[in-house]
Specification:
Elements: H1 9-12, H2 17-130, H3 139-155
Length: 169
Amino acid sequence: MADRHEPSPEEFYDNTPQEKAGRVRWARPSIGFLLVMITIGVASALAWRAYADRPWLAAQEAQAGTVKELRATIQQLEASQQQLVQRINALQMTQQQGERSRQVDLQRLSEQMTALSRDVEKTSKSAAAKAPAPKKSSVAENKLKDAKLTHTSSVGSPSASEPSASGQR
């Protein structure tokens, strides 16, 4: 291992001015490029963090708010629906009670009308049976009766030319 020779630092690095200038020319642009890339990367990461998460978060919050509003609206609609169902049921019950009451009234009135028609019929039959039948008289018989009445009244009166009150109709 003695054969091996380790280079000294002067031998390892070329210290010629031309080589130093070549290395510096090559190192400056690459260091600048790296600094620009690092700056762009950091700025992109910050911009991404600042703007990319917020719209997603805002959209998610908006959706959550919308979902909450929709749930509240649904609950209100369900409550309204229950109230409407209760009102409809109450109206149906009222209508059924009114219909029953109307039917009872109709039946009662029908029975009263039947009873009244029976009473009228009985009354008319009993009145017809009790009343005497009128006699049919002729015109000649009526004139004869009138003449008799006139004659009897004229005998008792001072003047025969005046008609009597009983003879006038």
